[in-house]
Amino acid sequence: MTDLFSIKDKVALVTGGSRGIGLMIAQGYVRAGARVYISSRKKDVCDRVAVNLSKEGTCVSLPADVGTEAGAIGLAKALGEREPKLDILVNNAGANWGAPLAEFPDSAWDKVLALNVKAIFHLTVKTLPLLQKAARSGDPARVINIGSIDGLKVPLLETYSYSASKAAVHHLTRVLARRLAPDVTVNAVAPGPFESKMMHETLERFHDAIVGSCPLGRIGEPDDMAGVAIYLASRAGAYLTGAVIPVDGGISTTAAS
Prior knowledge:
The protein is α/β, with parallel strands linked by helices. It has a single domain, classed as 3-Layer(aba) Sandwich (Rossmann fold). It has helices at residues 20-31, 43-53, 69-80, 106-134, 160-180, 200-213, 222-233, and strands spanning 11-15, 35-39, 58-61, 88-91, 141-146, 184-191, 244-247. Helix 1 crosses helix 7 and helix 3 (69-80) packs parallel to helix 4 (106-134).
């Protein structure tokens, strides 16, 4: 049974892997024996986190700005120079923006959609040859996109471009799942409240209300996110594609209508 959930010696790339949800996943993969590459825009931060994670396994820093097509091309090329295949791609890099309706700027749409949606498309396409080389009968390569429960329900804050982008991530996941099968599975994780920089303001303002609305009565912890990411990347998750899995303690799935 242990082998069913093993990702030992698999090669993983986690964008936005230096903090928040991405760091939770990267650390879980390192501890599970995968060879993990993390990417983020800030080289110094990415390098420092990779060094720290390497104390528990293998982690390599590959800084890049995946918010542009050129950045995605460069990251795929850098990975291809180091690895002959890619077993797991985690598209986690993302941005948020909050502002009142009448003041919501056009630039917020451009920035958020470019990083949250276009980057997933570009990096998946550019790494597809490496993913296809990793595919085995009964054990496809994996793409895991990080969505949000804000793409499943109306968010508390005025984050118009963010919530719209995450709904787009969920549907893009389904479209890519159909297109890339059977060599590559494509699934999405829709996190609820976790301790992260992006969630900091929301948790500061609405912590008690969020916990009160959660059937499991708490904020998500790193192992909660690592667990679902390991499941999706392991043999246990090989027959799942096109799914959007909410990891939110039941907030989105049990809410009263």
